[in-house]
Amino acid sequence: MSNEQIVYKTDSLTPKEIKAAVRIQLQELNEGFLSSLGEKPLTLIFSFAASNPSGVLVLAKNSETDKVIGYVLGSTNTRRFYKEFLAKRFVPAVVYFLPRMLSLAKIKKGFETLLYPMRKKEENTQEKKCDAELLDLAVTKDYHGKGIAPRLFEMLVQQFRQKGVQCFDIPTTEGLDRAHHFYEKMGAQRVGVVYVHGQQKTFIYQYHIEENGR
Q1: The domain containing residue 104 runs over which residues?
Q2: Which of 84, 101, 136, 154 has its CA 20 to 30 Å from the CA of residue 3?
Q3: CA-to-CA distance for 16 and 24, rounded, in angstroms?
Q4: How many angstroms separate the Cα of 163 from the Cα of each of 55, 159, 195?
Q5: Tens digits of residue pLDDT in 156-212
Q6: pLDDT bucket at 40, cuts 50 / 70 / 90
Q7: Which residues pair with 171 in a beta bridge?
Q8: pLDDT digits 0-9 by tens, 90-108
Q9: Is residue 82 part of a domain?
């Protein structure tokens, strides 16, 4: 697959394209809490990120087939993003999320996810605090190793720079060694640890845009 056949889209994302990105999340990152919510709640979150000033959603597409093959999701301020999401999408969020969160365990994880940005600031020992975050990055298996993920990362950096972001965090669950190596290769450094769900560690990587020159 040549690079000329891959296009990256940041604006005027269609509902069909957003839903395709959600399905990649469900296929490629199917062990996390967000994946357990299902397609409709995730589509609500992704759609909000595509339309809200504090959100960033970049899609990678095969220009020949018009198929979405990867995406990166980010926020310029995760606390503000969740706050505005709940304020502006409260009714559909309740309709979509509640049927998926009928167990106490899932309700607990839901609150832990929403409170995570605040806990990160309290527990993380990093010297510089970054409000922006890379929330999610995934590429379909058929396109692994073709330079799609690094380019998506670079596109996120460009979007963040345009929004005045100087640095951003990358929360990554313990045990995801492949993801850790990727972010380290891109120039991010591990700066702290936070416990989001019980005793499960989430490593916080940090990327400084100007220092890395992207």
Answers
A1: 3-165
A2: 136
A3: 13
A4: 10, 6, 29
A5: 999 999 999 999 999 888 888 899 999 999 999 998 887 665 567 888 899 999 877
A6: confident
A7: 204
A8: 666 666 555 554 444 554 4
A9: yes
Region at 8 (left for phi over 0; alpha for psi -120 to 50; beta for the rest): beta
Q: List Cα–Cα distances, 80 to 12, 75, 87, 120, 135, in angstroms.
A: 23, 9, 10, 14, 14
Query: Which residue, 209, 206, 208, 212, is CA-closest to 158?
Result: 209
* SS (HEC) of 25-60: HHHHCCCCHHHHHCHHHHHHHHHHHHHCCCEEEEEE
Please calculate the CA angle 193-197-198 and round it to the nearest 5 degrees.
90
d(CA 140, CA 131): 28
Once rounded to an integer, what is the mean pLDDT over residues 142-150?
93
68, 59 in Cβ contact below 8 A?
yes
CATH number, domain with residue 124: 3.40.630.30
Residue 70's nearest CA partner among 8, 156, 3 is 8
CB within 8 Å of 123: residues ≥ 6 apart = 192, 193, 194, 195
State the total domains in the chain: 1
Residue 197 lies in a domain: no
8 A C-beta contact, residue 74 and residue 14? no
User: Is residue 20 a part of any domain in this protein?
Assistant: yes
